[in-house]
Amino acid sequence: MAVLVAGAAAMVFPFVWALVTSISPGAGLSATPSLVPENPSASAYQALFDRLPFGRVVLNSLLLALATAAAQLATASLAAYVFSRMPFKGRGVIFSVYLATMMIPMQVLVVPLFVEMKSLGLIDTYLGVFLPGIASAFGVFLLRQAMNSIPFDLDQAATIDGAGHFRIFVQIILPLIRPALATLAVFTFLNSWNSFLWPLIILRTPALKTLPVALAALQGQYTTQWDIVMAGSVVSILPMLALYVFAQKYIVQGVAGTGFK
Fold first, then answer.
1. Residue 146 confidence (pLDDT) above 80
2. In terms of pLDDT, which residue wins out, 137 or 10?
3. Closest by CA position to 225, among listed 9, 24, 20
4. Mean pLDDT across the stretch 123-139?
5. Domains and CATH numbers, the chain
6. Chain centroid to CA 34: how far?
7. Consecutive H or E run containing 160
């Protein structure tokens, strides 16, 4: 128990320190960590909204995260159904090759993806940020594992009743893997919400930038007001925290049900 408490405290401390720094005017990272602000003030949050079109960048991140999550749920669930329920020659090999793409880091794909988006005329557009994230090998793996846990007897019974693949997929499979779908939705949303490298490369117009990119612009070349930076970090964390608390039950069920560790 002591080890768990110590681990939890170590993980919570950075967030608490960021919160305290955000309400400590003039605070710097060189200062000794303290959990008790001397002169607490919300001026950093006001300055954050003055320096950035904060509502706009939050909306940009929110829309992109929601769209990416919805797209990955659609593509991953359809692909997972094919790999789980529709046997065909070479299925295992194709699935293994598809999973192998998870080992390719995003940094390796940046140049070819940028060239592709440029050829399509999608530089500095939301679509250019959105398209590379519409499919996920991890999502296919997660949902396939969930579908494999569903007895094939249900498919056979539905087939006898005259149901085709689409009806089985929509009316039987999807309702039974809701925890896995919720888990994938949360993971995808958080990944898109925190995405920094690809939006930084694609987006040029300040009004189109996402929250992580906009917050990075708060750091100056020679000096940085860390109270404002930490205020932005706290605001960016709150939606993720609320989403995880709301979906915690489904995440646990989804991870346990798919055997993913």
1. yes
2. 137
3. 24
4. 91
5. 2-35+42-258 (1.10.3720.10)
6. 31
7. helix 152-160
How large is the average pLDDT for residues 137-159? 89
Two tokens at 104?
């390719």
Q: How far is CA 88 from the centre of its chain?
A: 32
The string over 211-233, giving b where at least 16 C-beta atoms fall within 10 Å of a residue's C-beta and e elsewhere, is: bbbbbeebeeeeeebbbbbbbbb
Average pLDDT (33-42) is: 67
207 Cβ contact partners less than 8 Å away, ≥ 6 residues apart: 53, 56
In this prediction, residues 43-71 reach a mean pLDDT of 86
Q: Which two tokens mark 202?
A: 């694609």
| Mean predicted lDDT score pLDDT of the chain | 83
- Could you tell me the two tokens for 13? 């401390």
In the block, residue with structure tokens 């880091």: 105
Q: Among candidates 195, 229, 228, 226, which has minimal Cα distance to 212?
A: 195
Q: 93-114: b or e for each residue (b if 16 or more CB lie within 10 Å)?
A: eebeeeeeeeeeeeeeeeeebb
Sign (positive/negative) of CA torsion 91, 94, 100, 102?
negative
pLDDT of res. 261:
45
One-letter amino acid of 14: P
